[in-house]
Amino acid sequence: MAESGNRVYAIKTTAKQERTVADNIEKVTREQKDIHVTAVMVPEELKGYVLVESPDSIARIEQLVELIPHARAVVQGSTALSEVEHFLVPKPVVSGITEGTIVEIIAGPFKGEKAVVKRIDSGKEEITVELYESMVPIPITVRGDSVRVVERSESGG
Predict the structure, then answer these.
(1) Has this prediction a pTM greater than 0.70?
(2) Which terms under GO biological process does the entry name (predicted)?
């Protein structure tokens, strides 16, 4: 957890280079003992940005950015950890899937089949689907991460 006095800075990066920048920050701070970084975060939702937690001033983080390829600039100002901690909580696999959504099964014996979502169990992260082209509607329960959304339902049910 963060020590008091640490601030979180957003570093703008080249598109699709967030992971590279994060790795390089770790390498550079190991060599440059006068620049302190306590944590580096690469949230999936924040494309083109890396979040850095540091007790240092923004000027020090700007010096760090100059040493790292694909790091463009530090966004002016800092934020508290409380404002970015929602990135630390994993999203449930079934979030964004509603009843009536058309999905494609991407794993298991029904791989490649399209199906309609009939029920969602967020607790177990499972969904119950009925195969689209099946003569007899048979409910099949699959894990939320073994389907890909093809078409979202408009009504949600």
Answers:
(1) no
(2) regulation of DNA-templated transcription
